[in-house]
Amino acid sequence: MPGKPTPIFRSGRAIVGIACCVLFSALSLAAQNRAFKGAITDSMCSGPKVHAAMLTKGETLAECTLACVKMGAKFVLLNQQAKTVYQLDDQNRPKAYAARNVLVVGTLDKTTGTIHVADIVLALPPKVLQAKSIYLDCDDCVRAMGKAKQAALDEFVNWKRFKLVQDPQKADLVILFSPNNYLGDFVTRKGPDTRPVHIDITYMNVIDPRTGQSLWGDSKLAGSFRVPGATRDLIDELRAHIEAEENGQVSKLLLQDTAPVSVAPGGSATGK
């Protein structure tokens, strides 16, 4: 006597069960993501003091870090406050953040002290969070790029967080918009930027007016007609980041397509 065929609904239930297991496993792994705060440096000379002793004339910390990596060192995450150094399994992504304060999002292998990197974003330094006044500047803002400064002015006036001043030396921060990437020369450069202007990307950098260092920055791919919108988007991004750090909700800005991120012990996302 032939055996009874298995009802179709049971096969469907099994498939659904397997799918649920896979989904819950994926969510479980994603839920382990944490944000680790620190600076991207290298395993050869972890820490700014060591780097400072090795700098050649005119060399920056970032250049020193990249040179050490080129000689065989590995990118690591240093949290000086917590006195911890984490290894990073992804050695490509940190290159763009050499010597910068960041939030590395991922899972920690406690046995090796290695972070399995899912994402890296710039962290806001305390100077940005504590700033009260800003100076708006637009570098090489010719043609359609000239609309960036007015759009930025309207946006910051509506935000009502910062006092706008007319002298960069009297400002806590300089907000610089440009069609070209920032070269770190706000303080040292004499004369206008001589690079060609192609209005394809709108760049925004938050600059320390005393040193010329970019404390935070981002860009939006946008043609001539979208410069005002790109400018507003960049300011909105900065505003969201500042408010999230002040409210301890940086997780909402990170890995938005996966699971919430918790801040690792010793790596407060508030920057305080």
Question: What would you note in describing this structure?
Answer:
This protein is an alpha/beta fold. The protein folds into 2 domains: 90 residues, Beta Barrel (OB fold (Dihydrolipoamide Acetyltransferase, E2P)); 119 residues, 3-Layer(aba) Sandwich (Rossmann fold). It contains 6 helices and 11 strands. The strands form 2 sheets. A 5-stranded mixed β-barrel has the order 1-2-3-5-4. A 5-stranded mixed beta sheet has the order 7-6-8-9-10, with helices on one face. α5 links the parallel β6 and β7. α5 runs parallel beside α6. 28% of the residues are buried. The N terminus and C terminus are likely disordered.
CATH superfamily of the largest domain: TolB, N-terminal domain
Biggest sheet features: 5 strands, mixed, barrel
Distance between the termini: 76 Å
Question: Helix coverage percent of residues?
Answer: 25-40%
What structural class do the secondary elements suggest? alpha/beta
CATH class of the largest domain: Alpha Beta
| CATH architecture level-2 label of the largest domain | 3-Layer(aba) Sandwich
Outline the low-pLDDT stretches: 1-31, 255-272
User: Taking all residues together, what is the mean pLDDT?
Assistant: 77
Q: What is the 3D form?
A: globular
Number of continuous helical runs: 6
Strand content bin: 25-35%
- Helix-strand string: HEHHEEEEHEHEEEEHE
Q: What's the number of structural domains?
A: 2
Number of strands: 11
Radius of gyration: 23 Å
The CATH topology of the largest domain turns out to be Rossmann fold
Report strand order across the widest sheet: 1-2-3-5-4
